[in-house]
Design a protein that fits this description.
The chain is of the alpha+beta class. Helix content is 46%, strand content 14%. It has three helices and four strands. The chain starts with a helix and ends with a helix.
Amino acid sequence: MGPYGLRQIADVSFRRAHSLADRLARLQGWEPAFPERQFLNEFPFRVPKARSVVRKLARKGILGGLEVNRWFRELKDVLTFTCTEVNDPQALDELMAVLES
């Protein structure tokens, strides 16, 4: 892969994650859990009824959002999302379509 390939993957992951975070922030009741923090490709979001969001996505075959309160009880209804180079724009559109439905 080399340094150029690694940088390219990081750049694609960064752009897709930030694009997804912007889109998620437009959903009613959704907000970044730590808006002051910078991130590369993984970010936490405070969402209404996190557990039902995870189940809704799973029913559509989408592994989306890891419930953070499994490890940090004080972070109830916080999901962590991750984007990498394998999450193409179509996959992100599918995720958003399920969340918007």
